[in-house]
């Protein structure tokens, strides 16, 4: 597996990471724990060294799963986790809204350190920018955690460009994690130029468009009743039908490159910049192998030009998140 560095930091990780959220939450009931432990270890055996979790996934079950699975790989992997929702660190009770007050950030760090059973959190992201807490205070709290050896790197998820600059001035930001794929290209206007300017790495989440770009979802697909995609406008059956041309485009390129649509979606992200590290999520070994295979797919400038020209003519229908969740982004 090729390696990449997150921006100008020295944090080196596999070119593709593994998003662990879907093993415990978001896409229906949690997957079988022993199977997920085997999957996480298979990912490590195949060269993946970058694992993404969050206290909010479960809450807590995902961090616990990641710890149990990766205990034998201690010191050889980078585990990223997140703070910032209003979750009681002791009970897991989730209150509505956000909480990035410095005291809470420190409590969450202590709780995550215990759950992950590590001496320091490799990469600690603010999950969503809290409008009630100046970002300087958030960066200041993480700076103290770094000074105390409890955190190694600072990250932000779904921030606005101006917030990245303000945070970075207090505590250098190693990585920004926001949604990015051919299904959602919002970061291209302001975020990617800002990251390039400041030397910060970018970690696209939902790099497969929450599964849509793989071609395995169509308007007939029925999601489990607890699957969050039931609440997402771009996943209504009508919008899935309307958005199908994007998947067809990936299918066409995939056929020519003897690859799969998922691999083209990931290879396209990898080709955008050397400091981009996507974190596709899966609960299945054959898909893990397929996604890792994207690192072997080389898209030429002609391929990339063709994808860009064709994609620019396709208007994606439906918002990427429910309205209440959308309001928490880009602040
Ligand atoms: N910072 C944030 O707020 C935030 C938000 C969302 C996600 N994330 C992170 O980003 C990671 C990835 O995002 P995501 O899980 O939302 O979306 P994703 O990686 O774009 O897609 C995951 C979905 O695609 C399916 N899938 C994966 N590989 C496939 C393949 N080769 N062929 C067909 N289907 C495939 C998975 O189902 P199967 O399990 O059945 O394979 C799953 O339903 C998460 O795990 C999480 O760590 C962060």
Note the main attributes of this structure.
331 residues, alpha/beta, TIM Barrel, seven-stranded parallel sheet, globular, binds NADP nicotinamide-adenine-dinucleotide phosphate
Helix content: 25-40%
Radius of gyration: 19 Å
> What's the CATH H-level superfamily name?
NADP-dependent oxidoreductase domain
Going across the biggest sheet, name each strand in turn. 3-4-5-8-9-10-11
Order of helices and strands: EEEHEHEEEHEHEHEHEHHHHH
Sum up the overall morphology in one term.
Answer: globular
**Total number of strands:** 11
β-sheet strand percentage: 5-15%
Structural class: alpha/beta
Mean pLDDT: 97
The total number of structural domains is: 1
Residue ranges: pLDDT <50 for 5 or more in a row? none
CATH topology: TIM Barrel
Distance N to C terminus: 35 Å
Number of distinct helices: 11
Query: Any guess at the CATH architecture?
Result: Alpha-Beta Barrel
CATH first level: Alpha Beta
Q: How would a crystallographer describe the biggest sheet?
A: 7 strands, parallel
Secondary-structure map:
Elements: E1 3-5, E2 12-14, E3 18-19, H1 33-45, E4 50-52, H2 61-70, E5 78-83, E6 85-87, E7 94-98, H3 102-116, E8 121-126, H4 135-147, E9 151-157, H5 161-170, E10 175-179, H6 191-198, E11 201-205, H7 237-257, H8 261-272, H9 285-292, H10 301-312, H11 323-326
Parallel strand pairs: 3-4, 4-5, 5-8, 8-9, 9-10, 10-11
Antiparallel strand pairs: 1-2, 6-7
Helix pairs in contact: 1-2, 3-4, 4-5, 5-6, 7-8, 7-10
């Amino acid at each position: 597996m090729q390696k990449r560095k997150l921006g100008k930091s020295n944090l080196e990780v596999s070119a593709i990471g593994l998003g662990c959220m879907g093993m415990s939450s978001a896409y229906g009931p949690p997957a079988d724990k022993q199977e997920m432990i085997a999957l996480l270890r298979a990912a490590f055996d195949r060269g993946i060294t970058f694992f993404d979790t969050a206290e909010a996934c479960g809450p807590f079950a995902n961090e616990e799963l990641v710890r149990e699975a990766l205990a034998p790989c201690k010191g050889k992997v980078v585990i990223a986790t997140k703070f910032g929702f209003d979750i009681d660190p002791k009970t897991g009770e989730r209150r509505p809204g956000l909480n990035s007050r410095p005291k809470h950030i420190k409590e969450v760090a202590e709780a995550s350190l215990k759950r992950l059973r590590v001496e320091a959190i490799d990469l600690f992201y603010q999950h969503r920018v809290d409008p009630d807490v100046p970002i300087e205070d958030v960066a200041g709290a993480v700076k103290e955690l770094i000074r105390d050896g409890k955190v190694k790197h600072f990250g932000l998820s779904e921030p606005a460009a101006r917030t990245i600059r303000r945070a970075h001035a207090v505590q250098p930001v190693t990585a920004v994690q926001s949604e990015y794929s051919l299904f959602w290209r919002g970061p291209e206007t302001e975020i990617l130029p800002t990251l390039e300017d400041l030397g910060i790495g970018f970690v696209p989440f939902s790099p497969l468009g929450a599964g849509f770009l793989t071609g395995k979802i169509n308007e007939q697909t029925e999601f489990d009743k607890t699957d969050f995609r039931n609440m997402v406008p771009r996943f209504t059956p009508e919008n899935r039908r309307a958005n199908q041309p994007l998947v067809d485009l990936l299918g066409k390129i995939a056929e020519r490159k003897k690859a799969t649509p998922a691999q083209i979606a990931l290879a396209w992200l990898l080709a955008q910049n050397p400091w981009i590290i996507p974190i596709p999520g899966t609960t299945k070994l054959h898909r893990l192998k397929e996604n890792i295979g994207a690192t072997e797919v080389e898209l030429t400038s002609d391929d990339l030009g063709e994808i860009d020209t064709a994609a620019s003519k396709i208007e994606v229908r439906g918002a990427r998140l429910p309205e209440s969740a959308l309001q928490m982004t880009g602040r």
